[in-house]
Amino acid sequence: MAKDFTVAIVGGGMCGLACTVGLSKSGIHVDVFEAGSKFEEVGAGVGLGPNALRALKGLGLYEAVLSRSDTPSPTFRQFLFLSGLGEHEVIYDYPRTADDLGLGIYRPVFFDAVVGLLDPSTVHFNKRCVSLTTTETTIAITFADGTTHEADLVIGADGIRSVARNFVVVDAMQKHVTFTNTVAYRGLIPLEDLEAAGLQMQLSTRPIALVGLNKHFVIYPIHGDKRINVVVFMSKRDIPPQPPLPSPWVTAASDGELQDQFQEWGRDARIIVDHMKASSKWSIHALNPPLASYCRGRVVLVGDAAHGMPPHLGAGAGQGFEDVFVLCELLKNDKVTKSNLEVPVTRVVQDALQAYTEVRAPRANWVLERTIEAGQIYESYQPGRETQEVTKLSNLWDPIWHHDLGVDVNRAVEMVSKHVRVS
Ligand SMILES: Cc1cc2nc3c(=O)[nH]c(=O)nc-3n(C[C@H](O)[C@H](O)[C@H](O)COP(=O)(O)OP(=O)(O)OC[C@H]3O[C@@H](n4cnc5c(N)ncnc54)[C@H](O)[C@@H]3O)c2cc1C
Q1: pLDDT in tens, 266-301
Q2: C-alpha closest to that of 28 among 334, 323, 332
Q3: Are 78 and 96 contacting, i.e. CB atoms less than 8 angstroms apart?
Q4: What does pTM read for this prediction?
């Protein structure tokens, strides 16, 4: 049954698009406003754990994504941790379980799969949101081109530099966004080039993390196993998190700047960094301290806008898909209708968004904090230390991957039901 309220989504990244498809499938009128002139994803890989895949299933996106991925079914995705130095000995081999299956996918391929499910009339490009304001009956979005759009609800999916977040939390950029003192270099290397250079490490679809003091890499094959997705992290760990850096946060890396930093590392590590050509350099920011709430009035945040986190547990997009799944389940619930969305903002919509934030914020913020901890664990590794903290990682991943989203949805729906006005 078609719903009688309208939703506008600010930002057409992975989470904004997943949300657009999820809401459209539920008969909700949705428009997505993207600042760019087309949908664009960075040419790199993304790892999706079992929780992310369950959320995508719930949103009706899983089959399309799987059909374009490199493998016909999910594969074991737990990290193998190797020392970055010396002979790259095994530090921690995550135990294999039948449940730990995920996907590594080339981001543009993921995008193609999702865009293929969109109704093109819902998509509006060159629409950079500059502010949100409450009108008597709606939320109005003002764009940089001077135009406006009104909707009953606005979902901010505009990433870590979110403008929608300014409506939810005043001065959020200064109070919450910090530079983590980590930079990440991202590149894709043809496998044949590494083999020709004598790489000895055995690669599989499973990610390998090479760890060392204040540095680590994550590598896995992608795109028909022909290219290796590499992310090299370097951190300053003796200073506290800093205020957000000036723009741009992503730049082109200059030749040689990475190679000079890995002279002491093992042979395979040096082969990999030597082949990192035309890589991009990302200043990793995080919402730390995390936001206490992901909503205010009729505006709600999902994905990095709500909980931008470092990528050390490969969990950011997965948490965003969980947000989107819970939010879509709530908004498609029969109790949430326009008659219950009257002006001034009625309890039911506030309750729906409040229920969303009460269920999602504790979990996603917990994951955010664990990603910071994981980076510290990887980059404190030094050979010869008696206790390898890396073994603590099993306590970090399991609750992320094996969480029951159905319980969250039921809890949130129950919270809304308690307050629904009977007409
Ligand atoms: C090096 C690295 C590796 C990562 N690896 C993983 C991984 O393996 N697994 C994982 O789950 N996550 C990973 N992540 C995190 C993941 O990339 C993010 O969590 C995810 O991309 C967030 O999606 P999003 O849609 O919320 O935001 P974004 O991807 O940032 O999309 C935001 C969109 O909004 C648009 N926009 C911005 N401002 C405005 C505005 N004012 N008006 C309109 N539109 C606007 C942007 O153009 C963009 O299209 C990684 C991140 C990094 C940096």
Answers
A1: 999 999 999 998 789 999 999 999 999 999 999 999
A2: 332
A3: yes
A4: 0.96
User: 347 near 421, Cβ under 8 Å?
Assistant: yes
User: Hey, which of 39, 158, 231 would you mutate to test ligand 1's pocket, going by the most ligand atoms within 8 Å of its Cβ?
Assistant: 158
ipTM surpasses cut 0.90: yes
- Domains in the chain: ranges and CATH: 6-73+99-176+293-417 (3.50.50.60), 177-287 (3.30.9.30)
Please state the φ and ψ torsions of residue 278, each to the nearest 5 degrees: 50, 40
Q: Whose CA is nearest to atom 4 of ligand 1?
A: 311
Between the CA of 380 and the centroid of ligand 1 the distance, in Å, is 27
In this structure, what DSSP letter does residue 242 have? B
As a whole number of angstroms, the longest Cα–Cα distance in the chain is 72
Span 165-204, pLDDT tens digits: 999 998 888 899 999 999 999 999 999 999 999 999 988 8
C-alpha 347 – ligand 1 centre gap (Å):
31
Numbers of helices and strands, H then E, in the chain = 13, 20
259 touches 185 (CB < 8 A)? no
| CA distance to 99, 310, 336, 340, 361, per residue, from 49 (Å) | 10, 16, 31, 36, 19
Residue 314 Cβ inside 6 Å of ligand 1? The answer reads yes
- Ligand 1 near 10 CB (within 6 A): yes
Q: Ligand 1 centroid vs 344 CA: distance in angstroms?
A: 33
Q: 207 preceded by cis ω (within 30°)? A: no
Instruction: Determine if ligand 1 sits within 6 Å of the CB of residue 159.
Output: yes
Task: Return the structure tokens found at 260.
Answer: 């000079």
